[in-house]
Design brief:
Chain lengths: 167, 148
């Protein structure tokens, strides 16, 4: 994928995750979580890519104000923020499968201390694959297995899964 | 100096708002094993963290019979909270310094990418670090070189 090679230094890089306040064909504005001031990033033809969920990118802006935006961008010499990637409602979750019904999984989430937090429901995008690019086989997935899944949040506790890993 | 080749994934456990059931709502209730984890910083979780016993580690999870490229999980270097690692993406040569702020991952995964040899997944990067190296979250894991 195309990259901001010219500006690719940690000093110029900005990772911004928060709530989208404005989105157009030119730029996106995001208020980062825990902050009050919005940050505006401008799209760059040939560079900027827009993502939903985490597997396939699209060429058109798809987010709306109120959605979660995850932006990776680089500051140019004039101080302008140039967007490399913009994800809308992207999420990665980890946990154990608490229940399975047809192609729906209920996941009991876990943090890295091993403590459980809230449950989340996983439904599978039609193009969902494993981390090794193999199509998902639901009949090989069982309750109790550990899961890492990434995709697009399409509801408060509902993830449309693009990639999944089951151990 | 330590040089180690491994597989890296990303996680958002230290995301400001990704945690739930915090009191009061919206506050930090998980800062990782080191107490300093922040998803928006260049940080990582390391599988063999000093101060954590073997029974809470990838070595215990995978066992002595599990091998990845002739190495088992007991071969992973032990680092402490706050250790700075140079992490270089073997697919595109992008690199940056990340600080260890958490413990994990605990999976027994031996993965290959970019025609590299099989590598053990023993580092989880924050989203900020991972997307700096890779440019996107599209792939589930990347092969990296670790250097102290």
């Amino acid at each position: 994928m195309p990259m901001h090679e010219k500006f690719r230094t940690p000093e110029r890089h900005r990772f911004i995750k928060g709530i989208i306040t404005q989105i157009s064909d030119v730029s996106v504005s995001i208020i980062p979580y825990g902050e009050n001031n919005e940050v505006e990033g401008f799209y760059v033809p040939e560079i900027t890519e827009f993502w939903k969920g985490g597997l396939s990118h699209i060429s058109e802006v798809s987010g709306r104000p109120g959605d979660q935006g995850t932006m990776s961008a680089f500051v140019d010499d004039s101080g302008k923020l140039l967007v490399e990637t913009l994800y809308v409602n992207h999420k990665k979750v980890r946990g154990k499968i608490a229940a399975k019904k047809e192609d729906i999984l209920i996941i009991q989430r876990q943090d890295s201390t091993g403590l459980s937090s809230s449950d989340i429901t996983l439904k599978f995008h039609k193009d969902a694959v494993t981390f090794d690019d193999i199509p998902v086989e639901m009949d090989k997935i069982s309750v109790g297995q550990s899961v890492i899944a990434q995709g697009e949040m399409i509801g408060p506790n509902l993830l449309d899964v693009y990639r999944i890993e089951v151990n | 100096m330590t040089v180690y080749y491994c597989s890296a994934s990303y996680y958002d456990n230290c995301d400001y708002w990704s945690t739930s059931n915090c009191t009061p709502p919206g506050t930090y209730c998980h800062r990782g094993a080191c107490g300093t984890c922040d998803n928006s910083y260049y940080q990582c979780a390391w599988a063999n963290l000093s101060g954590f016993p073997p029974e809470n580690s990838i070595a215990d999870t995978c066992g002595s019979s599990w091998l990845c490229n002739d190495k088992h999980a007991y071969d992973i270097p032990k680092f402490s909270c706050g250790t700075v690692l140079w992490v270089q993406d073997l697919c595109n040569d992008n690199g940056l310094n990340v600080t260890i702020a958490d413990h994990g991952p605990y999976v027994c995964k031996c993965e290959t990418n970019c025609n590299s040899v099989n590598l053990m997944r023993i580092i989880d990067l924050t989203e900020a670090a991972y997307i700096y190296l890779e440019g996107s979250f599209s792939r589930g894991h990347i092969p990296v070189m670790i250097q102290t």
